[in-house]
Specification:
It is built from ten helices and 31 strands. By secondary structure, it is mainly β. The protein folds into four domains: 2-100, Sandwich (Immunoglobulin-like); 135-235 and 318-447, no CATH class; 240-317, no CATH class; 448-612, no CATH class. The strands form five sheets. It has an eleven-stranded mixed β-sheet, sandwiched between helices. Strands 21, 22, 23, 24, 25, 26, 27, 28, 29, 30 and 31 form an eleven-stranded antiparallel β-sheet that branches. The longest helix is centred in the first third of the chain and has 16 residues, at 2-17. 21% of the residues are buried. This is DUF5686 family protein. InterPro entries: CarboxyPept-like_regulatory, DUF5686. It holds the Pfam family DUF5686.
Length: 613
């Protein structure tokens, strides 16, 4: 009996010690360092051992081991630099995030001599099937677009910002700096989102976009926003040429792509009982407008499932350091083809500065997803004949008034931690009186206008100036804002020359009769000096900045103009419009006197003109 008791006690003791020998778990993901896209079927291996695995279709991995064989885990993907992360052999569970960058390793390094290049055979099949796989072959289609554009600052000097007396009150925004997902930390500062319905008709070709929701948040900058506008480009990998800003690049699956690219088949995988082949590509010659990257293609239909491309480092695009493009496709509802599911465009660029150390670097990330596809349906083509949508791009009246609950239920993918931090940051800034003061001052200096409820003053650079005819000149500009009247816009100015002792001015009025399609009447009267007789490379005299930039010794020619103008404009739903105007002008040129002085009284006889259009 005692023997049985000892055996039971021994078993209990062994069981009690089992948790101490539980398996070690190492999980994580592998993604592209630039695009943040997950990389499927990446090879992982513990350094110095034969223990390893391959990530799944979502780029994730999970090791469950009785002991960790090495303190370093290596990831290898064709076209990317090898990356090694440290593994703590004492921790029972840990998470690793691999961010790998494209390397400069040439495919020729792995070239295998054979009588047949299977990659070129695959390319020929892709090109042959392009007319069937290209979604633009559809007669008509409609889908919902979710578009998101984020702007991040890369090389911020956080120490100086925290100590500067102007930026110190806003030092809390530095808490949003992300130092976990990039080798260099970045600060997300701008985010814009939109949800819209997009319509396409092939013959005759027509497009229309109805924006249902839109919002922008962050520290907006006009010059940066203009640059980001270049990211709004429609890219179709099935086209022979792909636009990237102001340049045109050869598509990896162009009809004559073999003249510009080297190809190599690097992997084969089965997903949902379908076989997919991975093919890497790189430019044949340096300096050509071609991409480096890889694609996944379905072997039976030769339709592209995913394309990842990057612009080589030797490409010459102004103010751009790095560009990556990713497109993903999904099957039609009836599995008769593949349609665009996701489009991603990531750009590293910089703003010029006289001092290289002061140059700011930015990351622009544009992500577009496509859902609710409807194709070859009369409901799509009928929309183009509806008079309620005359423009190609229509913004719904409620687009900018959507609530947070609407966005949470309608955006195609949830916001990341960084993206949500932008909204939180701006909400906090908007409640700070000091920030309102700074932003209003910057807006006034940039635009020149200062609103006072229904009245607006500006631009300020016309406030005073000086010339030889008028001497010191003062001018006051006033106009109305939508608070005064949503359809009536009044504008004018009054100027006085202390040298010629005369008043000048202008008054104008525009009444908007109809917004869609646009129709208005306009009238104006002006009596002032006209710069039409100035030299072609001169700056107008009625400007505060001319005091500093006007060339000395260059004679000024002046002409007084008196103009009466009336206009009527009407636009139709078809896009046709007409514009009627009646103009009466009277010119009174001033004659220069010997010695370069200008007469204040010796004006020529008035020259009158009448114009009907």
């Amino acid at each position: 009996m005692n023997g049985w008791k000892r055996t039971i006690a021994l078993v209990i003791t062994i069981i009690s010690f089992l948790p101490l020998h539980a398996q070690h778990k190492i999980k994580g993901i592998v993604k592209d360092a630039h695009t943040q896209e997950l990389i499927p079927f990446a090879t992982l291996q513990f350094v110095g051992t034969n223990t390893g695995m391959v990530t799944d279709a979502e780029g994730a991995f999970l090791f469950e081991l009785p002991s960790i064989p090495s303190d370093s885990l290596l990831v290898r993907v064709m076209g990317y630099a090898r990356t090694v992360l440290f593994v703590d052999r004492k921790l029972p569970e840990q998470t690793l995030i691999f961010e790998i960058s494209r390397g400069d390793v040439s495919l020729k390094t792995y070239e295998v001599k054979a009588n047949v290049n299977f990659a070129l055979i695959l390319l020929r099949n892709i090109v042959r099937r392009k007319p069937y796989n290209n979604y633009d072959r559809l007669e008509s289609y409609k889908y919902e677009i979710y578009n998101k554009l984020e702007l991040d600052i890369k090389n911020l000097n956080t120490v100086k910002l925290a100590r500067n007396r102007f930026s110190k009150p806003f030092a809390f925004i530095l808490k949003n700096i992300d130092s976990t997902t990039e080798n260099q930390p970045f600060l997300p500062v701008f985010l814009t989102e939109s949800i819209s319905d997009y319509y396409f008709q092939r013959n005759p070709k027509k497009t229309k976009e109805i924006i249902k929701a839109s919002r922008t948040s962050g520290l907006d900058n006009e010059s940066v926003t203009k640059f980001l506008g270049g990211m709004y480009q429609n890219i179709n990998v099935y086209d022979n040429f792909i636009p990237v800003f102001d340049k045109s690049f050869v598509s990896p699956i162009a009809n004559n792509g073999n003249l510009f690219y080297n190809y190599r088949i690097t992997d084969t995988q089965y997903i949902a009982n379908h076989r997919f082949i991975r093919m890497n590509f790189e430019p044949r010659r340096k300096g050509e407008n071609a991409f480096i990257g890889d694609l996944w293609v379905m072997d039976s239909t030769f339709a592209i499932q995913k394309m990842s491309m990057a612009v080589p480092n030797d490409a010459n695009i102004n103010f751009v350091r790095k560009i990556s493009l990713v497109q993903e496709f999904k099957p039609f509802p009836d599995s008769s083809g593949w349609f665009l599911a996701k489009d991603k465009f990531v750009v590293d660029f910089w703003t010029p500065s006289p001092k290289p150390t002061k140059t700011l670097e930015f990351i622009g990330r544009k992500t577009t997803t496509y859902e609710d596809l409807v194709y070859n349906d009369t409901a799509v083509t009928n929309l183009f004949s509806e008079k309620r949508y005359p423009q190609n791009i229509v913004v719904a009246d409620s687009a900018r008034a959507r609530t947070d609950s609407f966005w949470a239920g309608h955006r195609h993918e949830t916001l990341s931690h960084n993206e949500q931090a932008i909204y939180n940051m701006v909400d906090t800034l908007q409640k700070m009186p000091l920030f309102q003061k700074y932003s209003n001052t910057i807006r006034f200096l940039a635009t020149g206008y200062k609103p006072f409820g229904p009245i607006e003053w500006g631009p300020y650079w016309y406030l005073f100036s000086q010339n030889r005819l008028e001497g010191f000149r003062a001018r006051l500009d006033l106009g109305t804002t939508p608070q005064f009247h949503k359809d009536l816009y009044l504008n004018g100015y009054l100027a006085y020359g202390f040298g010629d002792d005369r008043f000048k001015g202008k008054v104008s009025a525009l009444y908007l009769l109809k917004r869609h399609p646009r129709m208005y009447v306009y009238g104006s009267f002006v009596r002032d000096l006209d710069n039409g007789a100035s030299y072609y490379d001169e700056v107008g005299t009625d400007n505060i900045f001319t005091l500093a930039i006007r060339k000395p010794g260059v004679p000024q020619k002046f002409m007084q103009i008196e103009e009466k103008r009336a206009e009527f404009y009407k636009e139709y739903f078809s896009g046709f419009s007409h514009h009627f105007s009646v103009v009466h002008k009277q010119f009174m040129p001033y004659d220069p006197l010997p010695g370069g002085l200008l007469s204040r009284t010796a004006a020529a006889k008035p020259i009158r003109t009448r114009t009907w259009k």
